[in-house]
Amino acid sequence: MDIFYYVLIMLATILISNVVNRFIPFVSIPLIQIGLGVLVAFLPLAFELKLNPELFLVLFIAPLLFNDGKRTDRQALWNLRASILALALGLVFVTVLVIGYFVNWMIPTIPLAAAFALAAALAPTDAVAVGSLSGRIDLPKKITHLLEGEALMNDASGLVAFQFAIAAMVTGVFSIWSASVSFVIIAVGGIICGLVLTFIKFKFLKWIRGLGMEDVTLHMLIQILTPFVIYLVAEELHVSGILAVVAAGIMHAFEKRKMDPMTVKLNVVSQGTWSVIIFVLNGLVFIILGTQLPDIIQVVWQNSGVSNWQVIFYVLLITFSLITIRFLWIHLGWLIPHMLKREDTSKLNLRATVLTSLSGVRGAVTLASALSIPFVLGDGTPFPQRSLIICIASGVILCSLIIATAILPMLARKDETTTDSPRAEKALRVSVCRKVIEELNKEVTTENKLATEVVVEDYRGRMRGILKEDMDLSKQREVAKAQQELRLQILKWERENTDLLASRGETSHQTASRYKKYIDAMEKALARKTKTRSGTTSLMFKRLTRQILHPKQWQEAKARFNEMKQNPEQSQKMMEEIRELREKNVALITDRLKSMLDDSNQAVIWPLIDENKRLLDQMRRDIGSAKSRARFEKNKKEVQLQAIQIERDVLQELFEQGKISRDLVRDMRQNLNLYETYYFGSEELA
């Protein structure tokens, strides 16, 4: 029960940290969670958490990196591959060498191999910390992609360097050739292992779906187990488990699945489940870090043989050194190519270099590495200054987070998205709908044309609703009046086109005559639209009087109706001709209305375009047989699935490009889930 209570307290602490962040948003959540973790460590609990570094990596880092790999921008990762590798490999090893020698010179009681181990633990940036930071600070999109790619890749190089430094310290033996070969085997082997296991997983899923095993719970369980299994298998093969889960996540991002009801259902469940998992794991990482700090600091404060002020000085100096090395490496990496090409180096953005340098925060991997330092050497003697090394690593983590939290918002302010204003948000929502409509129109076929038009109309309806938000009453009346006038013009276009088609023999004169009667009736209805209720009652009375005074006309109309009823084939033919005529008129009207579109009249014209198409769609469905209607509903559902996926992709692209804030994209994704539920009903989401 003690463990159970402890877990409940940790989960409650995550909840409290997010509530606290609402009141002090200028402090990043990781710092709040570390502080609350320190408080948890002082609670009089029966259970005390002893962190196992290996368990920590598989339980927390594996699923977090797997999820980051799935969500990463593949194109951006490829475009920045050279810069990412320069940071993930070159900068890590430079940091190990420089900081290792520097620590050994500054603190002679820490042997060189142990100093290299500390430097290797501090070298990699942390993907979890970077993700938490980017959620609060809107960095330029290129820097964000660079940081995410670096954090995904540099863990392996840092951990391999750390392992060799510890091995050299424990055994007293080190070979640069052996270390280099081992690094290549471990890194490349990890990537290959992740790709192979993911390929096997895809084949396995295809096989069980072929057996009819479509249970969403089963597939969701497989998704959750994937990063843990891949990490453990890779570690058993003595290759990088971290790179294996990163490669697996990126491969999942490339997966193309056919959209069907089962996939949609799985996507909904998966999104909700993973959001909870990532939310909890992100919080636990920093809370656990906080719970470890009191014991670490207490040991150093009392028994390290170094004064407390010296420890603080070491932490600050090492943090400053890490930032300086990172700044010089990045600046030279951008400066040298420009100099070789003899380009103007004044165009280099120094501010971007500073942003990238300060964004290299340390986190869970650094702490896990430091805590995995053995207590004794190979000859049984205590590992020299183990507590001091762990304390310095913890202090650098805190300092990097504090510096990034305090300074980055000021430097990144100019790059924040501008979707906070209601007008900008409205424009963004409309642009998303338009993008979905454009993509759907590109995929139109003869089979799904009607279904696509219906789904497009749904999105145009959403656009109209967005555009009408906050529209004052006078503006609504102005739009209604303009639409009234334009509808009369549309009827004029229809009459002219009907006469033209009849003169060309493309429709019969009888059909044209009947259709023009419909146009006449519509014109009269529009002319009477502004009349009062008493005027409508008067009109009904006039019709009744005309039927009484002119019974011959009434009898003729009744005879025509009975004739059509007795000759269903002739009636069907007439309806088909009217439908064809209506289609041609709608095409003409749509083209003319679109040619009139500009920024000032969209609220007037788009509803009329959609209205004409909607009437045509209804006519087609009414004429079709039950079989054709069923086929239409099937096509409509497929197009709706496609539209939902397009909208998700558009939102993700906008977010990755920095054109939409995290809060707004979250709200829009929640709304999308509601639309998805509306489209497919409780039967498919149960």
TrEMBL record:
Belongs to the monovalent cation:proton antiporter 1 (CPA1) transporter (TC 2.A.36) family. GO terms for cellular component: plasma membrane. It holds the Pfam family Na_H_Exchanger. One of its GO terms (molecular function) is sodium:proton antiporter activity. InterPro entries: Cation/H_exchanger_CPA1, Cation/H_exchanger_CPA1_bac, Cation/H_exchanger_TM. The keyword Ion transport applies. PANTHER family: SODIUM/HYDROGEN EXCHANGER, SODIUM_HYDROGEN EXCHANGER 7. This is Sodium:proton antiporter.
